[in-house]
Amino acid sequence: MYKFILASQSPRRRELLKMLGIEFDIKVSNCEEIITSSEPAQVTMELAKQKALAVANELVKQRAFETEIADVRAASDTKNEENIIIIGADTVVAADGEILGKPKDKDDARRMINKISGTSHQVYTGVTVLIKKNGKWEDISFSESTDVSFYPVSDEEIRTYIASCEPMDKAGSYGIQGAWGAYVKGIRGDYNNVVGLPVARLIYETKKLGM
Fold first, then answer.
1. DSSP E strands: which ranges in the chain?
2. Do 16 and 195 contact (CB within 8 A), yes or no?
3. Kind of pairing, strands 24-26 and 3-6?
4. Is the separation of the CB atoms in 127 and 48 below 8 Å?
5. What is the largest CA-CA distance in the chain?
């Protein structure tokens, strides 16, 4: 039996992972995000791996502490660490060569939405899957891309959407599963990838880890 951990506080990723019919815990990584690339796919993979590794490191520290205080029950469960699988993910929007993450404020959200209104852009989600085997963490990292196009949108519609505060915690300042989904003209690729987790690709890739 595997124990799954989702290294993300995103409610959208939580719902998508539930689609797989597995039980999992949520441990939010508070690591400092370090980007060394300007290429969207690489950026998302870097951040996804950093999140997953941060949670893995916290688990190692927790195990060490439990052992130090001689918690017999925790010590007896140490072998189960070999069956832990950690999933980290990160999503960005890319438009005209610019990476659009979460908006800093409402003005930034308005700028992003104006940029993608009436045109096409790409949504990238990077995923890292960590599993501990023979005392070492093994990983698979990948990035999925989906093309999304929107109809032109009026200034009033943009103001109304921003006033709802819905775009403030979303890459590119919109959630395709929310109110802004009404303006979608077309999608080429995985819809779930735009929401925040390409579950079909996740299943395919985890098979490479022997799951």
1. 3-6, 24-26, 84-95, 98-100, 120-133, 136-150, 184-188
2. yes
3. parallel
4. yes
5. 63
Tokens of 197: 């987790």
- Amino acid identity at 114: N
- Rounded Cα gap, residues 35 and 32, in angstroms: 10
**Residues 127 and 202: beta-carbon distance below 8 Å:** yes
Residue 6: other Cβ atoms inside 10 A: 25
Is residue 128 a contact partner of residue 51, using CB atoms and an 8 Å limit? yes
β-pair partners for 139: 130
Q: Between 127 and 75, where is the model more confident?
A: 127
pTM: 0.86
| Contacts of residue 194, Cβ cutoff 8 Å, sequence gap at least 6 | 123, 146, 148, 176, 187
Q: Which is more confident, 197 or 84?
A: 197
Give me the active site residues, please: 90
Beta pairing, strands 3-6 & 98-100: unpaired
Tens of pLDDT, residues 10-58: 999 999 999 888 899 999 877 777 777 889 999 999 999 999 999 998 8
CB distance 54 to 86 below 8 Å: no
State what percent of residues in the chain have pLDDT above 70: 90
